[in-house]
Structure formats: structure tokens, C-alpha cells
Amino acid sequence: MKKLFLACLFLLGLCFLPFAHASAATQSSDTMILEWRAEKAWIDKGDLCLRGTFTNKRKDLSITKINQFVTEITFTRADGSKYQYVAMPTKMPLVKISAGGTRTVTFNLGHFEDTWKDWVATEDYTFTYITGKRW
């Protein structure tokens, strides 16, 4: 009886063996892998919002998470004066990008009280990716 139980347990373990494969996630800030393009900045209910598109430039990597996102926006007022605003999102949205894919994301950068005529954004971000993973 004990041998039969161990044999069944062994066969059951073999059934789940292919699912036991684990792959390690890697963190990076390489813009040659993931590129961000800011498209629009606006005020919504007193909060500054920034929308843009992430593009995964690699066909063999899947982005699983944006870990950190810091943006520096240079605003130009109507009188020509410039000022810089550095911010992080109040809440990081869930971002998954398949290999070679794109994803449009909107960040809420928190309370903001000013106006502008023009703006330019630069950013610094880190992300997690998995090699060879597709979904």
C-alpha cells in the first residue's frame, strides 16, 4: 500500500513538473529596451496628469512592471518665463507590455497650481522584464 501511494505521488509530481519552471526577472533603466514618449499634460481636479506611451523595443523580452517613474517637466509660461517641476506619480499603475508591444499610460503627478503655454518632459524610470516570456 505504501509503495502504491509513493508511486501515485511520484506520477502526480511528474505531471506538474513542466509548470515548475521559474525564470528570474531583471530590473533595468535601459531606454534601448523600453522607451517613453510623453504626449499630453493637463490639469484634472487640481492634479497634474501626464499621458504617454511606453514602447517595448525588444521582441524577446516582456515588461512586467514599471518600478519607478520620475519626470522633470519644463513649463513655459505665457510671458516666456520657464520653471521646472519634478514629480513622481501618486500611484503607480499596473503596466505590462508584451514583447514588441506598446502601452499608453496616464500618470497622476499630484496637486498642481500653475498655468503654462508650452511644456517639455524628460523622465527617468526603472522597470522589470522577463526574458523569453510572452503573454
Question: Mind explaining what this structure looks like?
Answer:
The strands form 2 sheets. Strands 1-7-4-5 form a 4-stranded antiparallel sheet, with no helix packed on it. It starts with a helix and ends with a strand. It contains 1 helix and 7 strands. The model is unreliable at 17-22 (pLDDT under 50). It is mainly β.
Summarize the structure.
Helix content is 10%, strand content 52%. The chain has 135 residues and is mostly beta strands.
Summing up helix and strand content along with how strands pair, one would put the structural category as: mainly beta
Order of helices and strands: HEEEEEEE
- Secondary structure: helix percent: 10-25%
Give the neighbour order of strands across the main sheet.
Answer: 1-7-4-5
Q: Topology, pairings included?
A:
Blueprint: H1 2-15, E1 26-28, E2 34-44, E3 47-56, E4 61-76, E5 82-87, E6 102-111, E7 118-131
Antiparallel strand pairs: 1-7, 2-3, 3-6, 4-5, 4-7
Give me some keywords for this one.
single chain, 135 residues, mainly beta, four-stranded antiparallel beta sheet, three-stranded antiparallel beta sheet, 10% helix, elongated
